Amino acid sequence: MEKAKYIWMDGDFVNWDDAKIHILSHTLHYGNGVFEGTRAYKTEKGLAIFRLRDHTKRLLNSAKITMIKSPYTLEELENAQIELLKKNDFKSNVYIRPLIFLGYGVMGLYHVNAPVNVSIAAWEWGSYLGDEGLENGIRVKISSFARNSVKSTMGKAKAVANYLNSQMAKFEALEAGYEEALLLDEEGFIAEGSGECFFIIRDGVLISPPNDNSLESITQETVLRLARDKGIPIERRRVTRDEVYIADEAFFTGTAAEVTPINEVDGRVIGNGKRGEITKELQSAYFDVVYGRNPEYEHFLTYI
Ligand code: PPE
Predict the structure, then answer these.
(1) What is the sign of the dihedral through the CA atoms of 167, 139, 124 and 47?
(2) Distance separating alpha carbons of residues 62 and 159, to the nearest angstrom
(3) Active-site residues: which are they?
(4) DSSP per-residue codes, 70-119
């Protein structure tokens, strides 16, 4: 990870190397914290944060779900992110990581009396699954881990604790020589990637599972809008693993992953084993939006 100059912590800009917390911070022990991942792109008119409002709203919704009271409002959190990017003077694309967590002072599971801390870090981060992956696609393995059950975890929250499951799935996939994991839900239908939502294309129809068992992905929602604009037919319905194997195209969406084509799943080549045509079209439309080249979606950009 590229170091930056400052990290925002509870209202102050702290030097990167000094951005530390106490070892008895509640979140570190019991896993109740919420975070966001937001990207800012170097556009022709300078650095611009993509869908800042939507990401910050989701952060506060995540906190609401896990019963953490944010000491900052939506506007305060938005401004902090903008100020942080201004102060850090970034030269290339940036990833922003706000985190609302429970700090030091209370031990034991009952978390309500623990102090709430907020940090926002930002650093220069390139492609998540590799430049090669963006261009030619990645190899994916269906995980032996089921995606967190909605009976016991709350997947609409981008909650720290939910990511143990993702981490184990990711590790398993990489250990087996693949680049990303695809998780099924408890009934065996496709849920999502370890940190991405999932799409297939069959006979010109774009298909993505409903968000019952996935994060409400902002990138997924953006891609669905772009597909609608292009008149591509869309279905939101459950998908089984065998349907994935015979899809014409497949791809992941996420803030970090952007639009990453999938060229193989469990040893089955998807389509022609390269980035599919519709995938390519949607990927380039997505990059046009985030880089400010599509005037219709200028309102998604917050220029720094
Ligand atoms: N599902 C999960 C489980 C998930 O973590 C993400 C984002 C998504 C779907 C896509 O959501 P969105 O970013 O709103 O399109 N994953 C973040 C974490 C990446 C990381 O390794 O850290 C991200 O993409 O920022």
Answers:
(1) negative
(2) 7
(3) 158
(4) -SS-HHHHHHHHHHHHHHHT-SS-EEEEEEEEE-SS--SS--TTSPEEEE
Mean pLDDT of all residues belonging to the chain: 97
Handedness of CA 59, 80, 51, 190 (dihedral sign): negative
Task: Say how many Å lie between the CA of residue 37 and the centre of ligand 1.
Answer: 7
In sequence order, which ranges of the chain are alpha helices (DSSP H)? 26-30, 52-65, 74-88, 131-136, 163-175, 218-229, 241-245, 277-290
The predicted structure's pLDDT at residue 1: 81
Which tokens sit at 261?
């084509």
Beta carbon of 96 within 6 Å of any ligand 1 atom = no
For the record, the structure tokens of 76 come out as 């305060």
3 state DSSP class of 204: coil
State whether CATH 3.30.565.10 applies to domain 131-290: no
Q: How many CB atoms lie within 10 A of CB 238?
A: 16
Flag residues of the chain having pLDDT under 50.
none
**Centre of ligand 1 from the C-alpha of residue 258, in Å:** 9
Q: What is the pLDDT of residue 68?
A: 98
Query: Looking at domain 6-124, which CATH architecture does it have?
Result: 2-Layer Sandwich (3.30)
pLDDT score, position 98: 98
Encoded tokens for 229: 């604009």
User: Would you list the domain boundaries of the chain?
Assistant: 6-124, 131-290
